[in-house]
Each structure stands twice: as C-alpha cells, then as structure tokens.
Amino acid sequence: MEEEGRSSWMKYGPVVSLFVVILAVWFRSPDDAGLDDRLDNVLSSLLRAEGKVGMNNVAKPKVAVGFGGCVDLIVDGVTLLNKIGLPPTDQPLHHDYIENELQLAQSFAYFFAPGAAAERFILNDTLFSELVEASRDLPGNRWAVGGNAPVMASRMATEGCDILLGGSFSPDFTDVLSQHITVAGNIVDEPDIHLILEYPSGASWGRYTSRRANRYIVHSDDHNPYLDSMAKFAEKLKDFEPDLLVVGGLQMMDNFPFQAGERDALFSRLSDLLSSSSPTIGVHFEMASFVEESIMEDLLHYVIPHADSLGMNEQELPNLLSLLKGSNITVLSDPNPRVATVLDQMREVYRIVNQRSKDGSAERDTNGVQAKPLTRLHVHTLAFQAMIVTRGSQWKNTMSAVAKASLTANRHVCGSKDIDPSKARLIMDDSFSISQREGSQRIPLQESRPISCWDEGDYEICVAPVLVCTEVYQTAGGGDNVSAAGLVLQI
After folding, report:
1. For 396-410, how does the pLDDT look when each residue is reduced to its tens digit (9 = 90+)?
2. pTM of the entire structure?
3. Mean pLDDT within 300-328
4. Peptide bond into 111 cis (omega under 30)
5. Which residues pair with 114 in a beta bridge?
6. What is the 3-state secondary structure (H, E, C) of 417-486?
C-alpha cells in the first residue's frame, strides 16, 4: 500500500505542484501585485532623486571626522544571554550603567520589548570580559570596524570623500580602512571592543517579544572616553583644510568613571578645537545614546553651540528636546513615532537652539566665541528620514540628500548595495500630517514623488520614506551610515 502511494505521488506529484503554483499566482491578490509595483515605483523615484546630484564631476569633498573607534563584535543578543545562562527578568528596568548580570538582564529587557536602540557602559570589567569570551565562539558572530567616527568615515569614503579620521587604533584596525582615510591618533596594541547584541523583529526572550529589529550595545572602553587622538587630530586638521568637520563618539564619556575635573577639561579642549576652526567650515555633531544628565548639559555648553548641523534618531531627538526645555533625560521614547510628532519636535529643537545662540546669556562660550546658528537638522527613523535646512545656508541638495539617506538605510541594514524590493516594505503611513496641531495639512505619499519638501519660516523641510529591510543583516551602525550619506550630498 505504501509503495502504491509513493508510485501515485511520483506520477501525479509534479502536476499537483504546478497546480499549487498556479493557485498561488491566481490567488496572489491584485493587492499583492499592486504592493510590489508600489515598492518598485517608490524605489525608482528615490534612486532618481539620489542620482540628480553626482560627485563625479566635482573635487572630492574633504571631511574631518572624530573621535575614537572600536572593534564591534556582533552577535545575536538572545543567543548570547541564553549561552551565559542569564534568565529573563520579571522586572525590566532602566540603568544608567551596568554593574552585574541582574542589571544587564533588566536593562536589556527594558529596551528589547519595544525594540529601542540603547548603549550602556559596563562598569564591571570581569562581567564584560566574560560576555566577550562567550561571544567569541558563538555561531554566526562577526567582527567589524566600529565606533561612530570610523563608521561615518568609511561611509563617506565609500561615497567619494577624502577623510581625516581622529582615533587611536591598532595597526590591524588601520589596515582594513579605506585608502581614502588618513588616521590621526595614537597606535594602541588592543583596540576597545564593543559588544553588539542584535535581535530581529519578533524575537523572543522569556515573555518578551521585540516589536522591531534593533540592537543593545555594551562596552567597557579604555581609550575612547579620553578622546586621546584629539591633539594629533588638531595638528593635522590645519593642513587638511576640510570642507566639513564631523564630531561623534562622545557617548563613550557617558557614565565613565573620570577623576574630578577630567571630563570638563576634555570638553574644554574640544570646544577650543571647534571654535578655532574656520567659520566657513561646517560642523556636524552626531548625537547618540546619552543617559547622564550632566554630560548632556556639557554638550549643550561645549559642543552644540559650535555645530551648524545635528544628526540623531527617534530616541535621541526627544531626549535632546527635553534637556533644551529644562526637563529630565528621556530614557525611552516611541521607537516608531508618527511623522507629525517628529516634525514638531524638530521645529522645537531648531527654534530653541537658534534662540539660545541669539540670547546674550548663551551666545558666547567660555572662550568668548559666538555660538553658531543651527542651519541643518537630520532625524533618521526606521520608517522615514526628515530634514530641516535653513534657506540660503551652505547646505544644498536637500531632496537628494534625504533620498540618499533613505536608500542607505536599506543598503546598510540588508547588507547589500543593491536594493531588492522583495526584501523591503513601507511602514510609513499612506499620508501624514505635517504637525500635530489641529487642522494641519496632510500630505499623501505619492509613489512617483515619494519625497515631500515644503517651506516654513526661514527653512525647508523634506521627508522621505524608507524601504525598510525585512531580511536584516545588521542594524548597528545604521544611524551613522545614514547620517554620513545624507551629509555627503550637502557639503
């Protein structure tokens, strides 16, 4: 009887399989086909917008990027925690820094469920070493160049810029950097390691399920918090004559156990460096995951007054806004905010920062240098890119820049230069309000013109949807790649 059944399948199986395929095609609703067409149209439109501005016929932009860097060890977060036998906690909690396994479990759970990016300093060297050792032989682990500055530098070099990178690296680290990157800093035997706990959308850890793909980063740096490349970077900066100066990686100073006065001295030196650069050189500051209120106040005093441009994600935007308005740190915000919410927050940041630069109490830093007006603000979220750019400022090609930023988000997360619409989806609404204020205009998402730009006050706003990658290769470094790509076309 079994042989007879097998014989029947051999005879009719191919016919049945073909019939199933025909049924699948037949019942693949027009909605599915329409969705595929829509993604294709949006992709084509974004590529056209990106391609309007090329870099082939212009001199290579020169960009100086600081500070620091590390080696990223990328692992599946849940697999690592299971390997070290760390049970899921019943009490998700925020911790400014991590001292033991219980705090690690509580902090991971706090950000894992909503799918919010986070980065924390591990004060316990033994715990961090144990995590790194457990990760070294974990199946599927990967090593990569890491740190805000090297990642942004690498992206800009890939896009055609010449780079001066400030950081202290090992010879092996320097060898894998692009030939278009010149390093200014000290040589170290062992680079700092950052442990990247990645997780996909829908991942489970105990009773927790992640709402979106993201990462939880832990580190215990020795070199980066001291900005120890700053002196050599400053020396080379004068002869390099950059078109743009990018500052990032300052979150390594967050909750680091400095001696009294050490951090203030470092920020004062950084402020001197920024204020001594030519006023014609644009300065971009890339925000990150900051949880210590005092360091945020240092940024407002020493760094942001010198920046023409700010870049950040959907977690960092409300955090900065809260501090600007005199409130407390915002540890966790909506990881999937609406466009109207983000735009209102951006308008407030733009208004307050520029008001501070005009006020007599804030217009000059400790060296008597006048604060720069903020003329560019870029916020990158999972669903969309948004930019505010002051009309008549040095920043150009805003529409092409948001298109490039959007496309780079997919390219980086999917790990491919070519974008495959079958591995992407749109999660931005079919239309969005430009503000939460009652009666605000709604703008439809048009496939043939997916980027929306309009004027308000003294600035232009542009919003572009992201083709969200559905087969995630890596989320870590996404913001740095996206922000760097957007800057390239605006220098």
Report:
1. 999 999 999 999 999
2. 0.89
3. 95
4. no
5. none
6. CCCCHHHEECCCCCEEECCCCCCCCEEECCCCCCCEEEEECCEEEEEEECCEECCCCCCCCHHHHHHHHH
